[in-house]
Every structure is written in structure tokens, then in C-alpha cells.
Design brief:
Largest sheet: 9 strands, mixed, barrel
Radius of gyration: 24 Å
Number of domains: 2
Shape: globular
Number of helices: 4
Structural class: alpha+beta
Mean pLDDT: 83
Strand order of the largest sheet: 1-2-3-4-5-6-7-8-10
Low-confidence stretches: 1-33
Helix content: 25-40%
Number of strands: 10
Length: about 260
């Protein structure tokens, strides 16, 4: 009996000791993260990120942008876009999706952090963006491009990306909502845990809309495993002749039935 009682005591002592070590390790990790932020060491959000399918199945609209009232200019552009046969989306002709569409898409993308920059490598359309992290200000009059000119900074554990200087030929979504070359996009990326990345987005374009667009809820992504078919961003190039053949064979006949 004495030996059995001694054994029980030993087990309890071991459990308490183990719990204390675990608590201490958790406290050290939390303190270490705060210390890294305090000395200006950037959080790590690098890796290949996939659409959070669980969140999508619960709410297919999760992370999408909520339309807001348009200005007369925005209304005119929207009617012109949506009035085309088959919703003649520019991406159907292999034009780049632009922002915000590329960031809110369903295809995988990779974040690469290097000194002075964050690179975004997208599987969809095989596109890439560079976000300057060297403290530079946004240019006052940048040449318009499909993905604009981006400068980022860390606010605590959140990567905040400001982008201006857009080519106005891209659409905000597949429904034909337009934007002007004065659009200003703010992305906020935050790693909720090791496997989850959250993105919130604000689109401010006073020429086209009466107030900013925002996510109706944050969009979440899951970290891809380090091995296997999902560990790499694949090549998914839009080929104009293939898109044109698909349009003639599928899109135009389908549009003519409505």
C-alpha cells in the first residue's frame, strides 16, 4: 500500500512540474513575441497560403467586399460594364485581375519576406506584387499599373499595406463594379495563429463610390503543408487564344440564351 501511495504522489508531482514547465514556456513564447516587436523584428507571415475552405463552406460570402452606393460616375461605368453581353469581364481576355480581386481570390498565393520588401506570388494568372517595406512614402503621382504602387509597415503584429496608382480598366469584382485611377486600397494581414492568416481590406474611391468598401467579414487563409502538391504555387497562366476559344464555345452561347 505504501509503495502504491508513493507512486501516486510521484505521478502528481510530475504532472504539476510538467504543467509549470508548459506554462513557463508559453509565457516565454508570448514574452518573446512581444520582445521581437519591441526591437523592430518583423513578424513572420511567410509561406504558401490557401483559401480557408471551412470558412467558405460555412459562409461563401465570407471575406467578400460589400458593395456601397455609387456616384453618378461609378453608376455610369457599372452600367456600361454590366450591360455587355455575357458580362464581358476583362479577365476573360486575360487582362490582370488587379486589386482587390487578386488578393480576395480562391487560388493559393505565397508571401516571401526579404529585406526591404514583401513579395506576393499568386498562382492565379501567375502574377506577383512587391510591397516596399523600407519606410518610403507613396509617390505623389505614380504611373498607373494593374496592381498599383504599394508601401507597407508593421503595426504591432499586423502588416498594413497602402496602395495607390491604379489602372482603371480592372473591375473590383466579377459583377462589373468599376474603380477610378484615384482608388486607394488598404490591406491588413494578421497571423491569428500558426496556420491561419486574416485579411481585412478597405477600398476608398470617392470618384466612384459615396463611401469606402470594406470586407463584410475578414477573409481567412490556411497555411499549406511544407510537402505535397499544395506546398508550391503552381503556374496558372491565362492564354488569350484559349480564353477566346472558350468564349466562343461556351460564354457567348450561354449569354445568348438569357
Amino acid at each position: 500500500m505504501r509503495n502504491r501511495f508513493s507512486g501516486v504522489i510521484a505521478v502528481l508531482v510530475a504532472i504539476v512540474a510538467s504543467s509549470s514547465v508548459t506554462l513557463a514556456q508559453g509565457t516565454q513564447q508570448s514574452g518573446g513575441a512581444k520582445a521581437r516587436l519591441a526591437v523592430g523584428v518583423s513578424p513572420d507571415i511567410s509561406g504558401v497560403w490557401l483559401m480557408d475552405t471551412d470558412a467558405y463552406h460555412k459562409d461563401p460570402g465570407a471575406g467578400s467586399l460589400k458593395p456601397v452606393p455609387m456616384t453618378p460616375w461609378g453608376e455610369e461605368r457599372f452600367k456600361a460594364n454590366a450591360g455587355k453581353p455575357g458580362y464581358d469581364d476583362p479577365t476573360f481576355h486575360c487582362d490582370p485581375p488587379g486589386l482587390p480581386r487578386i488578393a480576395l481570390g480562391q487560388a493559393p498565393f505565397e508571401i516571401v519576406q526579404i529585406p526591404g520588401r514583401v513579395l506576393m506570388l499568386y498562382e492565379d494568372f501567375h502574377e506577383h506584387r512587391q510591397i516596399w517595406m523600407d519606410g518610403r512614402a507613396l509617390p505623389k503621382d505614380p504611373d498607373p499599373t494593374w496592381y498599383g504602387y504599394s508601401a507597407g509597415k508593421w503595426e504591432g503584429d499586423t502588416l498594413v499595406v497602402d496602395t495607390i496608382g491604379f489602372d482603371d480598366r480592372s473591375w473590383l469584382d466579377g459583377n462589373g463594379h468599376a474603380h477610378s485611377d484615384a482608388m486607394h486600397v488598404v490591406e491588413r494581414y494578421r497571423r491569428l495563429d500558426h496556420d491561419t492568416l486574416e485579411l481585412t481590406m478597405t477600398i476608398d474611391d470617392p470618384k466612384a463610390y459615396t463611401r469606402p468598401w470594406v470586407n463584410k467579414s475578414p477573409k481567412t487563409f490556411k497555411l499549406a503543408p511544407k510537402t505535397g502538391p499544395k506546398a508550391e504555387v503552381m503556374e496558372l497562366v491565362c492564354v488569350p487564344e484559349d480564353e477566346e476559344a472558350f468564349r466562343k464555345a461556351v460564354r457567348d452561347p450561354a449569354a445568348s440564351k438569357h
